[in-house]
Amino acid sequence: MIKEDIIKLYNAIQQEKSKGSVKFRYLLLKNEGVIKQEINTLNAIEKDIEKIIDPFTREREKLIKKLGTLDSNKGVYSISKAEKIKEFNEKIKPITNTYKDLIEEHDRKYKEYLEMLKEDATDNFKFAEIKIEDLPEDMKTESLQILMKLGILK
Length: 154
Prior knowledge:
Blueprint lengths: L2 H14 L5 H30 L2 H14 L1 E3 L4 E3 L3 H17 L1 H18 L23 H9 L5
Antiparallel strand pairs: 1-2
Helix pairs in contact: 1-2, 1-6, 2-5, 3-4
């Protein structure tokens, strides 16, 4: 099992834990507890990597707010008019250049993080097994795949 599988399992648990029988939900939550520390560690690393480009992200967001319009349904600004997109592309270049070193550091560390996710998980996780008859009928295919891959589904 690689670290990426742990993230996939966690995501599957988040999607499926409100479905099915009490027994099914109990077993999913039990398995969530098994991987929680690893997930917290991976999330902390990813968050630290994203912090590297915070100054660039703030400048980019200011520019988007200046040139864009607020989508009140989503609560986000976006740029949709062609002339504003062109203006954004011109104005983001010097900002990107200012933060070039931070962006490169972020990209390098994020690439390293993605490589680390392909490594074997160092912990031996003992998962609670789930019987196929306990699965909800509306379970997503991706969730089934990771449960089968990790030997959780019996």
